[in-house]
């Protein structure tokens, strides 16, 4: 019975928002800006109270510091 309850609890946690919801929106935007991977809408949908404007600020600032490829 204990094994069943542990499995049930773990299965319930598998679909949660993850660790990204606890990170500051600006820091998350900076991380994604370095990678040039805009995920603000996805984070806003997953995390309640997510500040997408602050995310965009971090994204823009980090993306502007990336060098332009010379290829």
Task: Describe the protein.
With 71 residues, this protein is mostly helical. The chain has a domain of 47 residues. The protein is 61% helix and 0% strand. It is built from 4 helices and no strands. The longest helix has 13 residues. The chain is elongated, with a radius of gyration of 17 Å. The N terminus is likely disordered.
- The fraction of residues assigned to DSSP E strands is under 5%
Shape: elongated
Overall average residue pLDDT: 79
Cα(first) to Cα(last) distance is 61 Å
Number of helices: 4
User: What's the Cα radius of gyration?
Assistant: 17 Å
Total strand count, please?
A: 0
Q: How does the helix and strand content classify structurally? A: mainly alpha
Largest sheet: none
Poorly predicted runs are 3-17
Helix/strand order, N-terminal first: HHHH
State the share of residues found in helices, binned by percent.
Answer: 55-70%
